[in-house]
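Q: Focus on the shape:
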Amino acid sequence: MAEVNLDREVFHLDTNQNRFPAIRAKYGPDVEIEVYQPEAYFLLASRKEGLTVEDVASEFKLETLRDYLARSVRQREEHLRAHPRKTAGK
């Protein structure tokens, strides 16, 4: 038997890592932040009953890895549309 905490979410470090000190100052051991390098993401988990990762993410305006990647793809596509590459010989 093992206890499994399912209240977890993966976030990208970019812009989110600046909020770690404030999160730790407010919640201390009630939240767990596991950083993964060189992947540049972290796993946030709540260890306090009644406090969800969604609550913490909303309060500190954290962007999930899924949302970060979707935004990055959109920005890349917009940039490519605005600045199409010229093909050789044309």
